[in-house]
Design goal:
flat, 320 residues, disordered N terminus, 2 domains, 10 helices
Length: 320
């Protein structure tokens, strides 16, 4: 009925009956609902299809190939085999009397690294072993020879003992050349420079006495000791006063709980009989001559300092 009404609206108004407003609104509402359903029906499947299609494209993308791991040992072995072929050619040519470069000259020309020399040596020694074993087998009775000795004896039976010794000498020279070149390459290696230790790390394990109420002493900051030129220590238990002077301009260093790099000839200790009198004077003096005079005024026996610092030691004075 609604369709008929809507078709009637298209005709000339003069030929139509007057249609109530609620019927016209109903027809327009039905048309809007129909268009909305058609629009959703067409759009939704398409969007789902596109999503599936895109998902397929993502799966089709090639995964990155994993990088092939380089086997360094295999590469070194292959390179060693190439060097060995040339070394054997030199040895064979020398045995046959053909004038060629020496094995040392070959190593120098190719600039063979030391790591390859250590692999070439066993190979050359293995070649030499065949000649030496064959020569030794000649002095052994046939029944007493091992299977290996008999095989090598038969392999080189056509050569005289003098020729065999000459072959061995050629191999000895080749081995000597490789060893000589290997030592040269070792000498080219730069010595690894020790990493400079930080001051904080140097004093990390240092044990000392921070304060002594008996003698009214307070230790200086231990961070001042590394690379200083002079340090004074006082052991509150033994009453030993020690002075340490640096060996060089680099100053004194600390390792664990021990002083290092001090000059043992002028680094000494003395027992102080009256610390209450001597220490205040020394503490307020910075001049080297004045400190030497105070040190000489201590009339006890002078002993060599051992550089050790413990929980009874006051870090008395540090001079940069």
């Amino acid at each position: 009925m609604l369709k008929n009404i809507s078709s009637m609206n298209k005709k000339d108004n003069k030929e139509l009956l007057e249609i109530p407003a609620f019927l016209r609104n109903l027809a327009e509402k039905e048309k809007d609902i129909h268009e909305h359903i058609v629009e959703n029906t067409l759009s939704t499947p398409l969007s789902e299809y596109e999503a599936i299609e895109n998902l397929g494209k993502e799966e089709v993308k090639e995964k990155p190939k994993p990088k092939t791991k380089v086997d360094i040992q295999a590469r070194m072995q292959a390179q060693t085999s190439e060097y060995l072929v040339d070394v054997r050619d030199i040895i064979d040519c020398t045995i046959e009397g053909i004038e060629v470069e020496t094995v040392y000259d070959f190593c120098k020309e190719q600039n063979i690294p030391g790591a390859y020399c250590s692999k070439l040596l066993p190979e050359c020694e293995s070649l030499r072993y065949e000649y030496t074993t064959s020569l030794q087998a000649r002095s052994i009775k046939t029944d007493d020879r091992t299977e290996e000795q008999q095989d090598l004896f038969e392999a080189f039976e056509c050569y005289t003992a003098k020729e065999m010794k000459g072959f061995i000498a050629v191999h000895d020279q080749a081995i000597s050349d490789i060893e000589r070149w290997s030592k040269i390459k070792q000498g080219e290696k730069k010595a690894r420079k020790p990493r400079a230790m930080s001051v904080e790390r140097m004093i990390k394990k240092l044990q000392y006495k921070k304060e002594c109420n008996r003698y009214k002493l307070v230790s200086v900051d231990p961070i001042l000791i590394p690379r200083c030129q002079m340090v004074w220590l006082f052991n509150t238990k033994t009453r030993k006063l020690s002075q340490y002077n640096a060996m060089s301009r680099n100053g004194i260093t600390v390792k664990g709980t021990t002083l290092k790099d001090y000059d043992p000839a002028v680094s000494v200790s003395k027992t102080v009989r009256k610390p209450e009198t001597v220490l205040p004077k020394l503490h307020t003096t910075d001049g080297k001559v004045a400190m030497r005079n105070i040190w000489d005024s201590i009339k006890t026996t002078e002993t060599k300092g051992n550089g050790r610092i413990n929980v009874d030691t006051i870090l008395f004075k540090v001079l940069k």
